[in-house]
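note to self — DONT lose this again. spent like an hour looking for the file last time. sequence + predicted structure for the chain T wanted, 243 res
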Amino acid sequence: MRKLFAFASALLVLAACDMVRTETYQDDLIMPLEEGQADSLFFSASVEYIVTGMKVEVRQKINSAIVTQAFDLENGEGSLEEVAIRYRENLIDEYMNENAVLENGIRTWEDRISGNFQPRYKDYRNYQISYYSFRGGAHGIQTLSNIVFDNKTGDVVREQDLFTPGYEEPVAQLLRLAVKSSMEEEDPELMQLVQLELVAPNGNFCVREDGVEWLFQPYEVGPYALGIVSAKLSWEELTPFLK
């Protein structure tokens, strides 16, 4: 019966990314908990992926990594559409099962996933995934996750691929200075909430023309009020640690 209450749509949006052609898979769902009630599951997915413009094996590596991370899977088997539908169906089951026995409280959930290619730099192709989840309470949680791809091979680029062994602590010290400087300038009060000792290279980075930027999720380096914290280091600062 639940499908009688559901509104869903999926479409592909064409886009261009340098010589690469991309499409965006989109899916939107509003699933009332019970017919006639306002309590509902809100789900949306908007995930960009490559369709042409590079070798098949390279494209497949990139798309597989995107699907795996966007939908939090150990192995993103199947097409993006197949995986997205499977994720949505599992979410519906979880929502219905967990809320069917509740008599009070907030029974509206939100689950929103968005993934897009970002400006590339040389042979590095950046991709960012935004995820928002609300399961009741005072607020939801939003996260931003970056993936860096080798544009020639399709492999995911790790920090260890960029930096020489032993980079962790000296780069962490530079990141702490960058966070302290930017936050003191933007909001000195929020700076008091940052646990600087927790700021360190965490694998969540992107490669830009002017340097490397790291992102820290809510609660990663301080309380929720901090939101997502970013810190960028210039290529000049990073030169001693680059391979």
